[in-house]
Amino acid sequence: MELQKLPDELVDCIVCSPPYFSLRQYLFDDAVIWAYNISNEEKQYIKKELKKRGIAPKQKW
User: What is the total count of domains within the chain?
Assistant: First the structure.
């Protein structure tokens, strides 16, 4: 089936990467960049701000 042939407003939600009950592990860096489409400069700014506020990621950036 081709997506272009589906009627408008047929689908309300598409889950494209469910958690798979922890069977799939994403690297934190890749997940942040992929999910929010941020640049390395933006990522470094976020890290700095979180660290300044005493909030640090559990995984290595």
Answer: 1
